Amino acid sequence: MTNTELTSVPATKLKVEGLQHYRRLLAYLRPYRTTFAGGLACMVVFGATDGGVPFIIKYILDGVFAEQNKTLLTLLPVVLVVFAIVRAFCDFGQQYLTSKIGHFVVRDLRNELNDHFLTLQPDFFVQNSSADLVARSTSDVVLVRGFFTDSVAAVIRDSIRVVALLIAAIYLDPLLAFVAFIAFPLGIYPVYRFGRKMRKLAKHGQEAVGGISALMQESIIGNRVVKIFAREEFEKSRFRTQNNALTKTFVSSERVRALTGPINEVLASLVVSGVILYGGYSVLHGLRTQGDFIAFLISVFLLYDPFKKLSRVSSSVQQAMAGAERLFELLDIASTIRDSEQPLALSGANNIELRHVDFAYRAGEQKVLSDINLAIPEGKKVAIVGFSGAGKSTLVDLIPRFIDPAQGMVCIGGVDVAKMRIKELRARVAMVGQHTFLFNDTIYNNIAYGNEAATKEDVEQAARAAYAYDFIMQMPRKFETTIGEAGLTLSGGERQRIAIARAILKKAPILILDEATASLDNRAEREVQSAIEELEKGKTSVVIAHRLSTVRHADLIVVLRDGRIVETGTHDQLLKDANGEYTRLYRLQFAAEEGERVEASA
Predict the structure, then answer these.
(1) pLDDT in tens, 261-282
(2) CB–CB of 375/381 below 8 Å?
(3) Collapsing DSSP states into helix, strand and coil, what is residue 411?
(4) Do the beta carbons of residue 493 and residue 528 sit within 8 Å?
(5) Is residue 275 part of a domain?
(6) Which of 77, 78, 220, 443 has the most CB atoms at less than 10 Å from its CB?
(7) Distance of CA 389 to the CA centre of its chain
């Protein structure tokens, strides 16, 4: 749910959703019921022992000093030590066990988020900032941890302390208890009001954290672009504006949090003043003993501490709920690409067929692909060409089900890919794109990523087949060289050859090449093209071509224009039409390449 949607939702619905978030968060405690029960037992004992403190004070004052009871004097230190040991043990137990549960829940939440991200279709990550997603997975999860380690524990522990001390106070003096607690309900109102404001500010703050993370990520990744266009001051200004807004939100939330304590402090001082005034007069007139009055006064003072903590915990709860809301927004996003409820078995054939396929990225928008009918025989190489924006990448994304058609179907071996198990479908497909992604890991692990069962010999053989072995062996640690984030320590050609080695190792019968040589210079392209030819052997290949020279020997060339197939044929067949789309593409590219050769010779 977006912020725009939130503003239009009735308050009653928001309250219902808030309760659902509470229940949903508490459900994460189920695997740790035993640990939580141990922590709860410690909280109960720790809270209940607070009620014994006033009675110890009473017996000291009345029994030891007023009645001069020496036996009680020798017994009380032992009782105090035992009392302190029990409280210390329970205090340790409740703090350690609740913190342990909090960290376990955070671990489970992060695992669930990561698992969920891996189920979402690729276009989700195009439409959403990766920095914001990371912020939700880190800072929002930390807020939720506070709910378990601080808020839940504090509510249970301090509620028990309040109840125990209330019972003690009422037992010691019902009349004074009535005088003391008549003002306590007044403290609930500011807690309620400030709690609602804290939740709103906390959510705005977490959203701002995602925004500022996105800006910082852009400054890091786009560092070269920023510098070449001399836009450092612009980026500084943009970041500072967002950072100031974030700071303003956090300062506002701290002001609200800071107000809760002082307001309750003033209310408590009024209560204590009333108790002292009324109780003091009653002691002076012999209506109460000093021990009764001091014991009662101690219970009131002790009661104030858990009450104050309970009022402050509301802020933490609201912040945690804001974080939980943002996490659950992510977890509730269902992938549009899912396994069929009754998946069909794959046939042994690897021919590909697109039947009357239409596709638009959003309902009601202009179609990116319209009535695509295409048959790709098994073991053949088909090239997809066309001007930028023709729909080439969209077409090939349909094959491994990165997207699904709005109408029509895509079949492999005569079976609709929408009815196959996604894992089995993608096991048949290897893909190398223009923008190669490599992990910040060793060269060996990046190649072996294509096949987890691969041996060292398999990895080396794949590197040789991809024409990558020689440059790898010149690296400082050879195959164990770490290539840095996104492999940017390597040249474009080297990255492509490692990606091709990874695809070779997968041994998939269907190969998709999405402009795999588009960003390379002529020398690097020749090296990579040799690796691609090795990779294509015996496979059903679908190639998006940037340079037509790389696909002139394809078994079939498909020409797209505005999302439609306008021509099909071999290179020689298509060039026979002097006014055809392919001929126009070829002439434009030939003229551009001829100009490059003239410039190079000059």
Answers:
(1) 566 666 666 666 766 776 676 7
(2) no
(3) strand
(4) yes
(5) yes
(6) 443
(7) 32
